[in-house]
Amino acid sequence: MSIIISHKDILMKSIAIVGKPNVGKSSLFNRLIKQQLAITSAISGTTRDVKKASFSISGVEVEIIDTGGLEKTQGLFAKVSEHSQKAALEADMILYMVDGSTIPQDDDIAYFRTLQKHKKPLMLVINKVDNDKIKQRAWDFNAFGTQDMCFISVQHNRGITSLLENIFDTLCLSKEQSVENQLREQFKQGEIDESLEEFLGILQEPQSEVNESICVGIIGRVNVGKSSLLNALVGKERSVVSEVAGTTIDPVDDEMHIEGKSIRFVDTAGIRRAGKIEGIEKFALLRTNTILSQSHIAILVLDVSEPFVELDEKISSLIPKYALGVIIVLNKWDKKYASFEEIKRAFTHRFPFLSFAPVITLSALSGRNIDKLKMEILKVYERFCYRIPTSTLNDVIARAISAHHIPSDHGKLVKIYYATQYDIKPPRIALISNRPKSLHFSYKRYLINILREHFDFTGVPLYLSVKSKQEDKDDKTSKTPKRYQRGDKNTRF
Predict the structure, then answer these.
(1) Taking the domains of the chain in order of start, what are their residue ranges?
(2) How far apart, in Å, are the Cα atoms of 351 and each of 50, 338, 363, 450?
(3) Element (H or E) spanning 323, and its range?
(4) Are 316 and 448 in contact (CB under 8 A)?
(5) β-strand pairing of 463-470 with 491-492
(6) What dihedral do alpha carbons 19, 24, 28, 29 form, nearest 10°?
(7) Which end of the chain, N or C, is more open, meaning fewer C-beta atoms within 10 Å of its C-beta?
(8) Are both 7-173 and 214-384 of the same fold?
(9) Which residue intervals of 132-262 are DSSP H helices?
């Protein structure tokens, strides 16, 4: 006998966004519901009333709640703060938002720990992490005493997919999906009243899962064949191609699916020498930088019908700037000016910092090796997202140290206690050491090479930072994780 499920069994989960004024709560609210429902401004305290709206995560409807800023004050804003706290406690999950461009504030920590006492799903959302330099402050936010944290930039749409995935898992929305699927099936079998059709929107196509599109920026100087490459990848004349240098001004994008993965290609404006950039091309260059800041992978297109030039090198410097995965495309291979060996030597000489990148020879016009490029994009993105198991990582590091001992610092012993990968896209690894500043650059390079030897990180930059181990007395009496100090800047290879 089948069990009849009523729509009353489905209660929409609610999520409250709380935090101090001007941290980006309303902006996140608008981003999630995809409309400008909440007014946003740089003026502190713009949001005063609680706002509610619904949106879908992997086809499951949830309610999102925008609240006013939490502040210790009098009068109007004291009431705003009170209403915000009430809304948070009534929700199924709380997103506590902070400004990631500043160091953690004591009052933020106090508010967060107060919310922790209510034993409700609580996630620390660190906003305004607009670039990877800011993201290095991850270690500072351990002061909140939680591992449930997510780094985002609402303005640049960074980390939003990861946030949604975390919400989905925390609220166990997969169970909600299962119930809704059962309801749909019962409706089809005639076991449910017709009124449920409207409730579930059965006649509508189910929404696709929240899967992040792989964003690929195509870069290079003018007339190297970027637009032709985009057209070849998507299989249609998406981008205008002409002999006139600089035809593409505004970024042109298109999306396709490869092996079930959604890939968004963006053809950027060709870059000229600085002295030749004028008028609208200056704006186009800014747009190119914006596109790259939102990309996962860069395809650097080089024209092999003529020798590489200094401008090619300068353009390639945008790749480490935005911490991107990279694929080198040697285009116009049917018109190459030299032999493969000569071109390879020229590439190695010009681009030693891209030695980890895969190199593909192709002809965008003829379609040569286009399919190979598509498969390589999937491989690079998989490596870009790869997380090394902690035990495996520490085993490899330990064996590397055993094979080549860490040089001392003026007779003082330098130790590495353990290693941990604290981020992906790209992979970022921290070494916890007694003397972070004493670990020589060359030894870090050695460790990176060892990691590349054991794990296939072709096309992916690796970032290695060294931190000191700081014992927190409170750790012995609470579950607050240990805090780590910055040792030195990230080393990238």
Answers:
(1) 7-173, 214-384, 390-492
(2) 53, 18, 21, 21
(3) none
(4) no
(5) antiparallel
(6) 70
(7) N
(8) yes
(9) 132-135, 160-170, 173-188, 196-200, 226-234
d(CA 412, CA 435): 9
For residue 23, what are the contacts with CB-CB under 8 A and spacing of at least 6?
69, 97, 98, 99, 127, 128
24's CB contacts (< 8 A; 6+ apart) are 97, 99, 127, 128, 154, 155
Give 221's DSSP letter: B
Question: Which residues on adjacent β-strands are paired with residue 484?
Answer: 469
CATH-assigned architecture of domain 390-492: 2-Layer Sandwich (3.30)
Is residue 219 within 8 Å of residue 268, measured between CB atoms? Answer: yes
Residue 130 CB coordination number (10 Å): 17
| Residue 274 neighbours by CB under 8 Å, 6+ apart | none
Which tokens is 455 given?
Answer: 């794990």
CB-CB contact of 302 with 329 (8 Å): yes
Instruction: Fill in the DSSP letter of residue 271.
Output: B
As a whole number, mean pLDDT of residues 168-178 equals: 77
Q: Homologous superfamily of 7-173 in CATH?
A: P-loop containing nucleotide triphosphate hydrolases (3.40.50.300)
Residue whose C-alpha is closest to residue 23's, from 79, 84, 75, 74: 84
**Res. 210 pLDDT band, cuts 50 70 90:** very low
For domain 214-384, give the fold: Rossmann fold (3.40.50)
Structure confidence at residue 423 as a pLDDT band (50, 70, 90): very high
For the chain, what percent of residues have pLDDT higher than 90? 39
The rounded Cα 43 to chain-centroid distance in angstroms is 28
- Give the least confident one: 29-43, 216-230, 273-287, 338-352: 273-287
Could you read off the pLDDT of 259-299 as tens digits, one per residue?
Answer: 889 999 887 765 554 544 444 344 445 667 778 888 999 99
Q: Does residue 55 sit in helix, strand or coil?
A: strand
Higher pLDDT, 206 or 313: 313
Q: 254 phi and psi, to 5 degrees?
A: -155, 155
Q: Of 489, 492, 484, which Cα lies nearest the Cα of 140?
A: 484
Output the pTM of the full model.
0.53
Instruction: Report in angstroms the alpha-carbon separations of 409 from 355, 399, 438, 439.
Output: 30, 21, 6, 8
* Amino acid at the residue 258: I
How many C-beta atoms surround the C-beta of residue 446 within 10 A?
A: 17
